[in-house]
Write a structure and sequence with these properties.
Helix content: over 70%
Number of helices: 24
Order of helices and strands: HHHHHHHHHHHHHHHHHHHHHHHH
Radius of gyration: 26 Å
């Protein structure tokens, strides 16, 4: 008699989820070969383009004897230090959501499975979700670094093993912080603390990251001395107790043939990963269960019996959002109510606005740091190049936010969509309100950042107005694209925005957004900066950009509004 193989609960969870992911991938390939082709072309294009850029840049640095090696080594230390910080933040947000705001976790807690096993599975899942983009980002860089240094084949094997050990440490710290926050902070206090901490950290980074400018006298004396002064603020990445320092030292010393030193740092990384990993796998389960019980029993949604009794005796007073919306009398009451509902839902989901603050906050810290070297930039070419680079960075952040948060808005209505459709507003006005709300809110951030970057670059006001107008057009186009595709490719059965975005519509929205930004920046950069001999190209490039933006933003939105008629009938 055939007996099915017996699995431990953790291996069973891993096997079931791996099979489910594989079958979903096969189903996507069978249902839409276009999606598979788009994803494949996008991945291959990114890998090839990023590898070429990294390889060309590292080879250019290697042409300077001594100086190139110093810059490359410091680049590796800075890169892994900042990626460690970003991985820590990502693991914190994802771990908190996976452990305490996840329906699968709540379901598993009702089964005869130990809480330690549940924590182990969610811990592994959080690390994978938080780290796959990190691996995707650094793979071309390490491949280019190895080719430039002409390392042997075993360098790549060692590097993959070290990175696998490295990504576990921020996952452990992120899970511990998530448990600590969930245990001692309720939802509102956690939101306020996270918002205040994020703003404080970003402001501190913006004002602390101020390199002392190299004077002409210093540049005339010694190049290495000037370089050391310019890199003074990166010395914190050389702190020996940072995991990024162990990884960078092991990789760099292996390329230089210092095998004993590389082996030492590899063993340091291995020992810390095994030690703290064993603590997480054996001790965090009980802490997780106690914190989950506290989170579920806490009045996270403001529900208390005394409060309920008081509300039955007297009418509920309007909140801050209602008071602000009440001042906007030029909008009707239905539009104001929908806007208040969307803003409140966005605020209640900490993972959404937390990631938004982190994305635009890091961009803001970078833009503020531009003022530290603007006095050394006198060439109009470099000023325009930095301005267009800032425009591209801001628009790419906006594309990430619109794809991640605006695209799922229609699908998140889910099974309540028929209620919205029967309301006096109708689905068409609901979608238009969502479009205008997301566009106006994102416009405040994007125009502010781009205007600030132009001001710090000491550009004339005509150029500031030009870049402000460009980012305004791109903001409306990207929001129109996200809203329109969200209606054309809905997923009304899923309540997780991350899973909604991972479908065909979300992937298509992200790819089209990136291609649109690339085409717009190249078109405007080549046409308006005087890199050609024809003066009429500036006007032609602006007209082409406006036409492209109109079709990218207006057509999907129009098609989405037309499809709403099928939902209403």
């Amino acid at each position: 008699m055939f007996r099915p193989p017996e699995y431990s609960p953790l291996l069973l969870l891993l096997r079931v989820n791996a099979l489910h992911s594989w079958r979903r991938l096969l189903a996507v390939r069978e249902q839409s070969r276009l999606l598979t082709s788009i994803i494949g072309v996008f991945i291959i294009g990114y890998l090839v383009l990023s590898f070429w850029l990294f390889y060309d840049g590292l080879r250019f640095l290697a042409k300077f004897p001594g100086l190139g090696a110093v810059l490359t080594e410091r680049l590796m230390f800075v890169l892994f230090a900042f990626l460690f910080g970003l991985l820590l933040l990502s693991n914190l947000v994802i771990s908190y959501t996976n452990l305490f705001r996840n329906r699968e976790t709540a379901f598993l807690l009702t089964l005869p499975v130990s809480t330690q096993v549940i924590f182990r599975w969610k811990f592994i899942e959080s690390i994978v979700l938080a780290s796959w983009a990190f691996l995707f980002l650094i793979a071309p860089l390490l491949a280019a670094f190895g080719l430039v240094r002409e390392v042997p084949w075993h360098f790549y094997v060692l590097t993959m093993l070290l990175i696998a050990l490295f990504i576990v440490l921020p996952g452990i710290i992120g899970a511990w912080l998530a448990i600590l926050i969930g245990r001692y902070l309720d939802r509102r206090n956690f939101q306020i603390a996270l918002l205040v901490t994020s703003i404080a950290v970003l402001l501190a980074a913006a004002f602390w990251w101020k390199a002392s400018p190299a004077t002409d006298e210093l540049l005339d004396r010694r190049t290495l001395e000037a370089l050391d002064q310019l890199l003074a603020k990166t010395r914190f990445t050389m702190f020996p107790f940072l995991p990024s320092y162990w990884l960078s030292s092991a990789v760099l010393q292996w390329t230089e043939g210092i095998l004993r030193g590389s082996l030492f740092f590899s063993l340091v990384l291995l020992s810390n990963t095994l030690f703290f990993g064993s603590i997480a796998f054996t001790r965090f389960g009980g802490l997780f269960y106690g914190t989950a019980s506290a989170v579920q029993s806490r009045a996270a949604n403001g529900f208390k019996l005394e409060t309920l009794l008081r509300q039955t005796r007297r009418p509920r007073s309007p909140g801050l959002l209602e008071k602000v919306a009440g001042k906007l009398t030029w909008f009707d009451s239905c539009t104001r109510a929908l806007a208040v509902k969307d803003v409140r839902m966005f605020w209640r989901d900490t993972t959404q606005w937390g990631q938004t603050v982190m994305l635009f906050g890091l961009l803001g810290a970078y833009i503020i740091s531009v003022r530290n070297f603007t006095h050394q930039i006198t060439s109009p070419f470099w000023i325009n190049l930095i301005a267009f680079a800032n425009l591209a960075t801001c628009s790419l952040n906006l594309a990430t936010v619109t794809t991640r948060f605006v695209f799922p808005q229609f699908s998140l209505e889910g099974q309540r969509l028929w209620i919205v459709g029967m309301s006096p507003m109708g689905l068409e006005r609901v979608i238009k309100t969502k479009f205008w709300l997301s566009s106006l809110l994102s416009l405040v951030v994007t125009v502010g950042l781009v205007t600030l970057s132009c001001y710090l670059l000491k550009m004339v006001w005509s150029d500031v107005a030009f870049f402000g107008a460009v980012i305004t057009v791109m903001t409306f186009a990207l929001n129109g694209l996200a809203v329109g595709l969200g209606v054309l490719y809905p997923n009304l059965r899923e309540a997780n925005p991350g899973k909604i975005v991972s479908g065909f519509g979300g992937t298509l929205c992200l790819v089209v957004s990136f291609l649109y930004i690339l085409a717009s920046v190249v078109m405007l950069g080549f046409g308006t900066t005087g890199l050609h001999g024809r003066a009429s190209w500036a006007v032609e490039s602006i007209i082409a950009f406006v036409a492209l933006s109109f079709f990218i933003g207006w057509l999907p939105l129009k098609w989405g509004l037309q499809r709403l008629k099928n939902f209403e009938t």
